[in-house]
Design a protein that fits this description.
- InterPro entries: ATPase_AAA-3 (IPR011703), CbbQ/NirQ/NorQ/GpvN (IPR050764), ChlI/MoxR_AAA_lid (IPR041628), P-loop_NTPase (IPR027417).
- It is a single chain.
- Helices cover 46% and strands 16% of the residues.
- The chain has helices at residues 10-26, 31-42, 57-67, 83-87, 121-124, 126-133, 168-171, 185-193, 197-203, 210-221, 227-242, 252-268, 276-287, 299-309, and strands at 46-50, 72-76, 88-93, 98-103, 110-114, 135-138, 141-144, 150-155, 174-178, 246-248, 292-293.
- The strands form four sheets. Strands 2-5-8-1-9 form a five-stranded parallel β-sheet. A two-stranded antiparallel ribbon has the order 3-4.
- The two termini are 26 Å apart.
- Residues 1-8 have low confidence and may be disordered.
Length: 313
């Protein structure tokens, strides 16, 4: 029996379908990107949206937070943004003679890091511990973040003046990198003749909550991955490490992320097992930003080459 069709799980399945339908009504004509975003959240990953302005990156982040009933904070990254502006600061209180920690916007359910590559590397690195360990350390004190916690970051790949490229260690913390791209003609006409997206966002109703999201994550972890499927996944990892045009291949952490995302994708597809097609659907958005080219080719091209070269046994 499918992992999401058992009788006691049916209401959760229905709520998940309603959640995806709601986000698709706001972000028109992007069902694949919406499914990828849901996959990332259910798998417990962070999401990097890389595209030109005005295609719906911020709208998607707002819609996800509203649909999952997650507390939402948005930080506009600029060159003068300080780490304390994100994680918080300890302030001395004369009355008590002690320092009191004032948490920053990172203490939320979903943090939108808008134009993340416009902040300095020092400020970008303030997210590293939070994204990796769900905690931040200030003045030697560790503060745990509420669960679930997600970062959705955006950046414009074309306007690079005054930007600081994300280091490899930061990129690796994003499970998926997506491009929303321009809408097709039908979706664009619906945008032009429909309601304002801000009005639609204000009308969104929570379909799931943090507890349901954690339950979905646990369900996804129970999705079966066969030995043959794991052989295929490992073959892709190995091929990335010996490819002549790739300077640094995929790490074991990337392999774990791919498996976790594939399980979440299978869950969303109504199956209790992972198929090679799930790996293939996720490989480019998961692997491309992690591959370091040795020559001129970009990560997307290299990821597609690996998919073409590695056969499914």
């Amino acid at each position: 029996m499918s992992a999401i069709t058992q009788p006691h799980e049916e209401p959760l399945k229905q709520r998940l379908e309603a959640a995806m339908a709601q986000v698709n009504r706001v972000l028109l004509g992007k069902p694949r990107q919406v499914k990828l975003a849901f996959t990332c959240l259910i798998a417990g990953g962070h999401l990097l949206l890389e595209d030109v302005p005005g295609v719906g990156k911020t709208t998607l982040a707002h819609a996800l937070a509203a649909t999952f009933a997650l507390e939402f904070q948005r930080v506009q990254f600029t060159s003068d943004l300080l780490p304390s502006d994100i994680i918080g600061v300890s302030v001395y209180e004369r009355e008590t003679g002690q320092f009191r920690f004032h948490p920053g916007p990172i203490f939320t359910g979903l943090l939108l890091a808008d134009e993340i590559n416009r902040a300095s590397p020092k400020t970008q690195s303030a997210l590293l511990e939070a994204m990796a360990e769900d905690q931040v350390t200030i003045d030697g004190q560790t503060h745990a973040l509420a669960q679930p916690f997600f970062v959705v970051a955006t950046q414009n790949p074309l306007d690079l003046n005054g930007t600081f490229p994300l280091p490899d260690s930061q990129l690796d913390r994003f499970m998926l990198r997506l491009s929303l791209d321009y809408p097709d003609a039908t979706a664009e006409r619906a945008l032009l003749t429909g309601s304002d997206r801000r009005d639609l966002l204000a009308q969104l109703m929570p379909q799931l909550d943090g507890h349901a999201l954690i339950a979905l994550h646990q369900q996804a972890q129970s999705i079966t991955a066969s030995t043959a499927l794991l052989d295929y996944l490992q073959a892709l990892l190995a091929a990335s490490r010996r490819h002549a045009d790739i300077r640094v291949g995929l790490s074991p952490r990337a392999g774990l992320a791919l498996l976790g995302a594939a399980r979440a994708w299978a869950l969303l597809s109504g199956r209790s097992h992972v198929l090679p097609e799930d790996i293939q659907a996720l490989f480019v958005p998961l692997a491309a930003h992690r591959l370091l080219p040795a020559r001129g080719a970009n990560g997307d091209t290299l990821a597609r080459q690996l998919l073409a070269e590695v056969a499914v046994d």
